[in-house]
Amino acid sequence: MAWAVCASLISTDSPYDRGRFTLHVANDDFGSGYDEAFTSGIEARFRFTPGDNVAVSSAHPELRRLRLHEYWGLSLGQNIYTPALVQVTDVELLRDDRRYAGWLYGTLSVELGLNHSPFLAHGHSLYVVELSLGATGPQTQTESLQRYWHAFIRDVLNRRDEPFDPKGWGVYQVPNHWGVNVRLYQESEFIRWSLAQPDWRRQLGSSFGVRMATKTEVRLGNMWIDGTGGFTIRAGLMPGVVFDDWSLPRLYKGKMVGVPLAVYGFVSGYLRGAIYNALLDGPPGAEGPYPARTYFLTRIEAGFVIRFAAVEFAFRHTTLSPELRNRPPSGVWIQNWGTISLTFAFY
User: How many domains does the chain have?
Assistant: First the structure.
């Protein structure tokens, strides 16, 4: 019965895929190699195309007319944050650095792609609404997870000591706290240029081109309150619809045409204004000390996406400006990490 209800929610006549499963793995070993600040994260994400009877885009005739594609999604993940001096347990030596923290969360999302852009007659736009529920503190068992992961790396690389097991989780960790956050995201193309290659498009579902898009994001809740603006430039062999975590070759009568192939790179730049960050400022009512932080951050990302048939591989390198006003002892000033993503689409 429950399976029949779930199956009835998934579209059977989508012009693109019916859904996709994505695994994101982020780690500073893919960037700076320093085990501090944001050190690692993992997220499993499942999205499906809803049927017209429940789709948000079916609520209004204009949305239905402009609709490219719609996803409903569920994500489960965990992020890990540590100070620079992971071998120190003296709080006085750690008080100018961020606390140990784990963010264990689940997210429900609605993503709507439209054949419309406020900047371009034939451009595309993406609108996303997410609701995240999660927890921080010892209740997330993040210390045990990090120790297990470090032991696994030492065994695989045949190392005796590195990466070190952080020792300060028990004395300098963000306390137990339940978090609720809403994320609103919008992306709109303002440049869209492609070479005229009908044969390529027919066989591969892609064409060579360059696209540029603006991005805005707002997060509201008891974990983060901030706003972000930025842009992305994408260039290479791309399908008709491309956004972050979207690479959609169009189907013909419900089937893939030829063997879909996409290979393109991207560069993004962002500016964020942060009013509140529970992992740096402390949850409401939590006792200090907590470090002084900055209120404006810049972030640069660069990477590539390769898609063949129903499988997609992506890598993204992220560079983030300092979150803390004072540089921690022996700490890096600029954060760097990499994210590997593997996606399987189904039809």
Answer: 1
